[in-house]
């Protein structure tokens, strides 16, 4: 039984969480390289909000502050959320999302270890439902954009809502590679022709594909250091590959390659950092297989047929809610009982 | 045996009594409110029509002066729809058409639009849609004045290439991040105007016989 | 029936057995129409009216309806009353009728209506039954109103929007813009906001109850009991 041993020894929790944060760094570094430093400000804002909300909620719940504030779990929530939403956004966007995730999704459910839903993904869902327009303005990677904002110009937009004279958000931002794919398919273009558009690189979106690789490297480090179990990322990526590959083989005009699905959007972030969240994830071997392949299926269905460009977050939430059932269903059999897993 | 029969009969009579009572109450309420309901419904319809056909443009009973239009590809309709005709002192002044944009971000967008006799748009309104709240729903007048951008536009001034959002080289505004929705609406409005051009003569015909065929 | 019993009936409906946040009955309309105060309160009052009338009219005939056809007769009466309310709203509050739509006829299927008829009106006299139905309806109205206010202020920054639909054109200027220039927090208006809001209301009521209990308990034994209970 591996049910959440993480709350018993606070020091190891904070160490594990620290490793997760370290593992995010390659992805973040590539993010900064391709999209500029705005993401660092988002991450900083999210971190401050996460810690402040955590402190307020702990105080309200009359729990000790120190062990929970230093366990780094709030920071992970903040970082994951900041990485999931556009970097160039009004400051309150990331603040509202992080605060909602920590206060409602984490503490109202009983704090770390008791939250059925991944707080960062709840924050993301709240934001994309509430502020869909803001959530579509993604920075253009610098090999593509002719205009690059300076750091102070970015700050001026985030905190004052002012863009340099003569510039519009349209000129600086673009839809994500997944979103563009969806829009263009809607207009009747073939997947191959769409992939020839300049925003796409070798694997998926220019720039963002490299960030995905960065997250994958961090994820492999987490597996190597045994912070996360290899099963969930492997099954998730495998299932996503098989599902998207099947569609691609049957109808290559309308369905893009599995590689695209791997490296576009938040697939890598999801595989290694979101679905592996020990709190809301399944705990048995079979359970993890069901959990990860279910997440892949939902992700693909939302990407290919749904109303939102990416489905990682909704898949996480929907599978989170199935976890209690999955865990009961796949519990290793107790003596004498028939059935069980299958 | 007889007792059972009697109690069954009693129960049945009881049930019949309540059913009759219920029917009586419902029927009388129906007759008492029937005229008021009709009046409210007409008033509501007129309110909607008045948004795109100002009352100064007609003096006929526009709600009754209708023409049934069969399913039409240009209007995007798949069944009969009603066109309302506005006339001023016997002169045709405008017609209100229903149109469906089939290619919204999440399904169909139902529109009504008024076309003046001279081919200008009196206005367009969205009746129902399923676009993303906060993103594609700015086509509703309650969310943004975008839809008023159609007022006064016509195919005499705007050519086919102009009936597009600015992002695609046309004349119509859109909001960054949500272009599919306005694209669909602009396209549907243009097609409805083409329909008007092609059927202009038929649309205004006063015909008593057509009321029967329309049913 | 004495005054205390009437008070108990009111207290039951509004707080102790509140249909919305204690019995959790009739949640479908509760969640669906509580996006604004006006919508919520209107449907709540329509429900309260139906409940008062149905309980009040079923109580006096309760002894004449054979047990076997009790339920069909009750439902028939409730359905008639709902349809009458629906006709009246259709005729005289058309705007509201359109907004509330399917949820007016659905009052028939709101289990709280039949539940009160079964649990109370079929055992009590007309006057207390009518009061019980009305109190329960008011309890539901209160929850709908509070939930509607929470969702509307948070979601749109206004209060009483759409009041002209209920009270006519003269009320058009009565909408309060609590937060000027508010961008809107859409999730509060959308269905998830209803669930989250209702959850918070239930939690809030439980918290108030718990505190009241603690106070009551801590009075006789003030020194030791209180901090223990605080953990719960």
Essential attributes:
heterotrimer; A: 342 residues; mainly alpha; two-stranded antiparallel sheet; 16 helices; 62% helix; globular; C: 232 residues; 11 helices; 69% helix; disordered C terminus
> What portion of residues of chain C is helical?
55-70%
Largest interface, C-beta within 8 A: B-C, 21 and 25 residues
Class by SSE composition of chain C: mainly alpha
Measure the end-to-end span of chain C.
39 Å
Main beta-sheet annotation of chain C: 2 strands, antiparallel
| Structural domain tally of chain A | 1
Gross morphology of chain C is globular
Classify the beta-strand content of chain C into a percent band.
under 5%
Give the topology:
The complex is a heterotrimer of chains A (342), B (215) and C (232).
Chain A: H1 10-35, H2 38-60, H3 66-69, H4 73-84, H5 91-107, H6 119-130, E1 138-139, H7 151-160, H8 169-172, E2 173-174, H9 177-186, H10 191-195, H11 208-224, H12 231-250, H13 258-263, H14 267-274, H15 285-305, H16 312-329
Antiparallel strand pairs in A: 1-2
Helix pairs in contact in A: 1-4, 1-11, 2-4, 2-5, 4-5, 4-6, 5-6, 6-16, 11-14, 12-14, 12-15, 15-16
Chain B: H1 2-52, E1 66-69, E2 81-88, E3 91-104, E4 107-116, E5 121-128, H2 180-203, H3 208-214
Antiparallel strand pairs in B: 1-2, 2-3, 3-4, 4-5
Chain C: H1 3-16, H2 27-32, H3 37-61, H4 70-92, H5 94-100, H6 111-121, H7 126-156, E1 158-159, H8 163-167, E2 176-177, H9 186-189, H10 191-218, H11 225-230
Antiparallel strand pairs in C: 1-2
Structure description:
The complex is a heterotrimer of chains A (342), B (215) and C (232). Chain A is mainly alpha-helical and 342 residues long. Chain A has one domain (5-329). Chain A contains 16 helices and two strands. Chain A has a two-stranded antiparallel ribbon with strand order 1-2. In chain A, helix 11 (208-224) runs parallel beside helix 14. Residues 5-11 of chain A have low confidence and may be disordered. Chain B is of the alpha+beta class. Chain B folds into two domains: 1-44; 55-214, no CATH class. Chain B has helices at 2-52, 180-203, 208-214, and strands at residues 66-69, 81-88, 91-104, 107-116, 121-128. Chain B has a five-stranded antiparallel beta sheet with strand order 1-2-3-4-5. Mean pLDDT of chain B is 87; it is low at 209-215. Chain C has 232 residues and is mainly alpha-helical. In chain C, 69% of the residues lie in helices and 2% in strands. Chain C has helices spanning 3-16, 27-32, 37-61, 70-92, 94-100, 111-121, 126-156, 163-167, 186-189, 191-218, 225-230, and strands spanning 158-159, 176-177. Chain C has a two-stranded antiparallel sheet. In chain C, helix 1 (3-16) runs parallel beside helix 7 (126-156) and helix 3 (37-61) crosses helix 4. The longest helix of chain C has 31 residues, at 126-156. Chain C is globular. Residues 222-232 of chain C have low confidence and may be disordered. Classes of the chains: A mainly alpha (342), B alpha+beta (215), C mainly alpha (232). Chain B binds chain C through residues 7, 10-11, 14-15, 18-19, 22, 25-26, 29-30, 33, 36-37, 40-41, 43-44, 133-134, and chain C through 64-66, 68-69, 72-73, 76-77, 79-80, 83-84, 87-88, 90-92, 94-95, 98, 184, 186, 189-190.
């Amino acid at each position: 039984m591996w049910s959440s041993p993480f709350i018993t020894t606070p020091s190891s929790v904070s160490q594990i969480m620290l490793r997760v944060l370290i593992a995010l760094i390659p992805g973040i570094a590539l993010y900064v390289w391709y999209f500029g430093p705005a993401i660092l400000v988002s991450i900083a804002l999210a971190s401050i909000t996460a810690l402040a909300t955590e402190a307020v909620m702990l105080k309200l719940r009359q729990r000790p502050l120190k062990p929970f504030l230093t366990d780094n779990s709030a920071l992970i929530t903040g970082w994951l959320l900041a990485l999931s939403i556009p970097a160039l956004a009004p400051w309150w966007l990331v603040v509202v999302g992080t605060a909602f995730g920590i206060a409602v999704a984490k503490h109202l459910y009983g704090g770390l270890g008791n939250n059925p839903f991944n707080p960062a993904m709840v924050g993301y869902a709240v934001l994309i439902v509430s502020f869909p327009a803001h959530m579509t303005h993604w920075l253009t990677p610098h090999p593509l954009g002719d205009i690059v904002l300076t750091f102070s110009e970015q700050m001026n937009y985030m905190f004052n809502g002012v863009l340099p004279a003569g510039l519009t958000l349209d000129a600086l931002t673009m839809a994500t590679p997944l979103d563009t794919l969806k829009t263009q398919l809607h207009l009747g273009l073939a997947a191959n022709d769409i992939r020839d558009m300049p925003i796409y690189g070798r694997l998926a979106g220019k720039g963002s594909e490299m960030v995905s690789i960065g997250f994958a490297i961090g994820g492999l480090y987490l597996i190597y250091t045994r912070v996360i179990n290899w099963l969930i990322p492997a099954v998730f990526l495998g299932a996503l590959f098989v599902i998207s590959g099947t569609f691609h083989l049957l109808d290559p005009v309308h369905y893009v390659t599995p590689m695209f699905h791997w490296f576009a959007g938040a697939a890598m972030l999801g595989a290694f950092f979101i679905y592996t969240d020990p709190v809301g994830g399944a705990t048995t071997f079979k359970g993890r297989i069901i959990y990860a392949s279910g997440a892949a299926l939902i992700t693909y269905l939302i990407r290919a047929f749904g109303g939102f460009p990416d489905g990682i977050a909704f898949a996480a939430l929907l599978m989170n809610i199935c976890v209690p059932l999955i865990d009961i269903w796949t519990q290793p059999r107790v003596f004498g009982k028939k059935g069980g897993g299958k | 045996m007889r007792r059972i029969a009697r109690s069954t009969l009693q129960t049945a009579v009881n049930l019949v009594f309540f059913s009759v009572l219920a029917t009586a109450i419902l029927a009388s309420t129906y007759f008492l409110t029937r005229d008021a309901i009709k009046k409210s419904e007409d008033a509501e319809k007129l309110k909607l029509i008045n948004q795109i056909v100002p009352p100064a443009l007609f003096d006929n009973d526009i709600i009754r002066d209708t023409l049934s239009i069969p399913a039409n590809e240009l209007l995007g309709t798949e069944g009969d729809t009603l066109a309302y005709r506005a006339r001023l002192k016997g002169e045709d002044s405008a017609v209100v058409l229903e149109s469906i944009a089939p290619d919204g971000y999440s399904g169909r967008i139902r529109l009504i639009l008024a076309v003046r006799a001279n081919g200008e748009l009196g206005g367009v309104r969205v009746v129902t849609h399923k676009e993303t709240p906060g993103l594609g729903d700015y086509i509703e007048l309650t969310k943004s004045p975008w839809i008023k951008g159609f007022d006064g536009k016509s195919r005499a001034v705007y050519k086919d290439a102009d009936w597009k959002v600015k992002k695609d080289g046309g004349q119509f505004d859109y909001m960054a991040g949500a272009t599919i929705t306005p694209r669909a609406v602009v396209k549907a409005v243009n097609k409805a105007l083409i329909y008007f051009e092609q059927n202009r003569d038929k649309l205004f015909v006063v015909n008593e016989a057509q009321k029967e065929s329309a049913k | 029936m004495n005054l205390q019993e009437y008070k108990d009936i009111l207290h039951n409906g509004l707080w102790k057995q509140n249909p919305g946040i204690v019995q959790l009955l009739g949640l479908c309309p509760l969640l669906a129409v509580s996006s604004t105060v006006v919508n919520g309160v209107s449907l709540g009052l329509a429900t309260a009216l139906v409940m008062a009338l149905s309980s009040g009219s079923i109580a006096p005939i309760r002894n004449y309806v054979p047990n076997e056809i009790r339920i069909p007769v009750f439902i028939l009466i409730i359905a008639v009353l709902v349809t009458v309310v629906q006709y009246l709203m259709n005729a005289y509050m058309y705007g509201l009728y359109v907004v509330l739509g399917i949820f007016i006829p659905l009052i028939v299927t709101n289990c709280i209506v039949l539940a009160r008829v079964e649990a109370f009106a079929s055992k009590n006299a007309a006057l207390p039954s009518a009061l019980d139905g009305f109190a329960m309806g008011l309890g539901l109205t209160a929850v709908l109103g509070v939930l509607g206010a929470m969702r509307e202020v948070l979601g749109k920054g206004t209060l009483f929007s759409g009041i002209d639909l209920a009270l006519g054109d003269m009320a058009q200027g009565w909408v309060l813009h609590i937060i000027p220039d508010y961008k809107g927090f859409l999730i509060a208006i959308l269905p998830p906001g209803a669930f989250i809001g209702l959850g918070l209301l239930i939690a809030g009521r439980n918290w108030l109850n718990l505190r009241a209990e603690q106070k009551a308990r801590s009075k006789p034994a003030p020194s030791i009991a209180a901090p223990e209970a605080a953990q719960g």
